[in-house]
Amino acid sequence: MPANNARAREGAMNKNLLRGAVRAALAIALGSAALSLPAVAATTLTVGKAAPNADPIIPADVGYQAGIFKKHGLDLKIVDFLGGSKMAQAMAAGSIDIGDGAGTEMALVAKGVPMLAICESTATFQFLSIGVPSDSQAKSLKDLKGKKIGISSAGSLTDWLSRELVRKEGWQPDDVTTVTIGNGATGVIAAFRQHLVDADIGATSLFLDMQEKQSGHRLALVSDYEGPAGSGALYASKHLIDTDPDAIRAFVAGWIETIDYIRAHKAETVKVTSSVTGFPESVMSKEYDLTLGMYTKDCRFDAESIATLKRTFADLKLVDTPPDMATLYTEKYLPK
Q1: Going by CATH, does the domain composed of 128-224 fall within 3.40.190.10?
Q2: Mean pLDDT score of the chain, rounded to an integer?
Q3: Distance CA 202, CA 149 (A)
Q4: Which residues, in sequence order, are CB contacts of 199 under 8 Å at separation 6+?
């Protein structure tokens, strides 16, 4: 009996050793197979920014530098343009896959540019302000009645916002004179210094920087008088929609995660935005606090924003006839 027990134990040990050897061999074989498989390549997307340093657009840079889009299987190539029309031309030429711009570019969709809005990225205008020279006596928006206000160009968003100020304040159209001075910092500073204008509608960051340099200051945010208006939007090219809708979903998911990251990481965000805009971190820190609330949490299109955009298209004569706004955007690529 003892001999039988010994043989039984020896047999069990041999079986266990055999099982262990088989498992080890299998693990080595699977590991070798995994090593021999090609790595899954990230999808490359060319992202066109309608402006190099506008706040609604900069999250593309933040998400790229934080590695967020890479987590979603995307390798971004970011290209800067000087205006939404230039970005739309690149979209029409097939040079970019994703457009990162303003809601007003939806008018270009209505005009036939092969793209579709896929996300309302910002809803309000905290990133734009009305600034005045350092020696201005204006204390509030009401003090701008009868004054000269700088805009970037006729028919531009800033032109429309000057008209909206007049409308919201209940003034007559000729109670404000608009002067085209462009949107470059040097042009605005020169116009203030030479008193060519009494105020200007431009980037909030510019007026915060001017305040530090004592050459001007922010009088009010545009959002103090203008409500939701789809100030920022993302676009997908028709080609990408037809060939790789999953890449669009991945980009939108990466964008939404980037906005969450921006809300939770002020120091890191300020560092990136400072490097992109060229303004010091002290300025971008103040701007961060002023503009954080403009980003949408889920990319969904707000009904009031869409209605305002439609009115904008008519006011600026961007389209010949009022478009069916529902044909200019979609929410099908948003996370469920």
Answers
A1: yes
A2: 89
A3: 11
A4: 130, 131, 132, 136, 138, 144, 147, 148, 149, 150, 219
CB 223 within 8 A of CB 126: yes
**CA-to-CA distance for 66 and 264, rounded, in angstroms?**
13
Nearest to 199, CA basis, from 158, 227, 229: 158
Helix, strand, or coil (residue 245): helix
Q: pTM for this structure? A: 0.83
Helix axes 204-212, 281-291, angle to 10 degrees: 140
Topology (CATH) of 43-124+229-327: D-Maltodextrin-Binding Protein; domain 2 (3.40.190)
| 117 vs 99: CA distance, rounded Å | 9
DSSP state, 196? S
Which residue is it, tokens 């009022």? 322
Q: What is the pLDDT of residues 71-126, one digit of tens each?
A: 999 999 999 998 888 999 999 999 999 999 999 999 999 999 999 999 999 999 99
265-317 confidence digits (pLDDT tens): 999 999 999 999 999 999 999 999 999 999 999 999 999 999 999 999 998 88
Instruction: Give the pLDDT band of residue 40 (cuts 50, 70, 90).
Output: low
Percent of the chain whose pLDDT exceeds 70: 88
Sheet containing strand 148-151, strands side by side: 177-180, 148-151, 199-203, 128-133, 216-221
Identify the burial level of 182 via C-beta atoms within 10 angstroms of its C-beta, where 0-12 means exposed, 13-18 middle and 19 or more buried: middle
- The pLDDT score that the predictor gives to residue 279 is 95
* Own/partner long-range contacts of 4-13 (Cβ < 8 Å, ≥24 apart): none
Fold identical between 43-124+229-327 and 128-224?
A: yes
Task: Give residue limits of the domains in the chain.
Answer: 43-124+229-327, 128-224
Euclidean distance between CA atoms 141 and 225, whole angstroms: 9
Sign of CA dihedral 231, 237, 242, 248: negative
